[in-house]
Amino acid sequence: MDSSLIGKIEKAKRYAQERDRISFVDFTLRFQGEHDSYILSYKDRQWQCQCNFFVHRGICSHTMALQRILAEMLPKEAFGARYGEEAGATAPRS
Ligand SMILES: [Zn+2]
């Protein structure tokens, strides 16, 4: 392995520990819930989930779980006022 690649690997290891460097702009994923799986997305500063609860409330256990998993890798807009109150999730510090 050449030395420049070794340097990149070392940098990658450090970056992987510094997650606040990463901020998702948009993404789509499949979330396996207890009863069904749902397509969930975050795009144009809006969450979307196929589950019934989200359709009525604009928030659900799936989006709240993603906030906890991705935490500092989500932009602050992904933690609206309603999320802060209902989910107990904390927006990353600026
Ligand atoms: Zn959902």
Number of strand elements:
3
Q: Approximately how much beta-strand content do the residues carry?
A: 15-25%
- Mean pLDDT level: 88
Which parts are unreliable, with pLDDT below 50 for 5 consecutive residues or more? none
Encode the helix/strand succession as letters: HEEEHHH
State the helical fraction: 40-55%
| Broad shape | elongated
Ligand identities: zinc ion
Spatial extent as radius of gyration: 16 Å
Describe what you observe in this structure.
The protein has helices spanning 3-17, 52-57, 61-70, 81-87, and strands at residues 27-32, 37-43, 46-49. The chain is of the alpha+beta class and 94 residues long. The chain has a domain at 23-87. β1 and β2 form a beta hairpin. The radius of gyration is 16 Å and the shape is elongated. The N and C termini lie far apart (39 Å). The structure holds zinc ion (ZN).
Please write out the topology.
Layout: H1 3-17, E1 27-32, E2 37-43, E3 46-49, H2 52-57, H3 61-70, H4 81-87
Antiparallel strand pairs: 1-2, 2-3
Bound molecules: zinc ion.
